[in-house]
Write a structure and sequence with these properties.
Largest sheet: 2 strands, antiparallel
Helix content: 25-40%
Number of strands: 8
Length: 153
């Protein structure tokens, strides 16, 4: 029995959606609905496999259609993480990007905002003023507990 090519396997595991042209993945997905499949001995995102992207190459699969389960090769393209995040902002999928202040009213500009990646691959902005206040508050509590327990300060 011959092995099916990648595109044939993707077609077998997807259903065409006639209105949008998307191929909706019917196989395994991650928690956010992105298609996963076994390919070349490892579990990969189907879109990355279709684009020929390799782990650690710094590229991501970007959906033009904005449908996570879509595996239509015409609807995906390779890009950078920053380009993908800009797409999310442009398509209003990242509502916090438009915020100009933190919950305490401090400006979230370049001098006060720290941009970090989350464990789920997203990005977040944190207010440096609030982060410093939280650090000092926790440090004060820690030192007070140490003094109360008799440990050297």
């Amino acid at each position: 029995m011959s092995r099916l090519g990648l595109l044939d396997r993707v077609r077998l595991r997807s259903e065409p959606e006639p209105n949008s042209g998307c191929w909706l993945w019917t196989g395994a997905t991650n928690q956010r609905g992105y298609a996963k499949m076994s390919w070349q001995g490892r579990v990969e995102y189907a879109t990355r496999a279709l684009l020929g992207l390799q782990p650690g190459d710094g590229k991501v699969a970007r959906h033009r259609c904005d449908v996570p389960s879509c595996v239509n090769p015409d609807h995906i393209e390779a890009g950078t993480f920053d380009e993908n995040m800009q797409d999310a902002v442009d398509r209003r999928r990242f509502p916090h990007a438009r915020k100009s202040t933190c919950v305490h009213g401090h400006p979230l500009d370049e001098s006060n905002a720290r941009v970090t990646r989350t464990t789920r691959g997203g990005i977040q902005r944190k207010c440096r003023v609030c982060a410093r206040a939280t650090y000092l508050r926790r440090k004060h509590i820690y030192n007070a507990r140490r003094r109360k327990s008799g440990a050297a300060a």
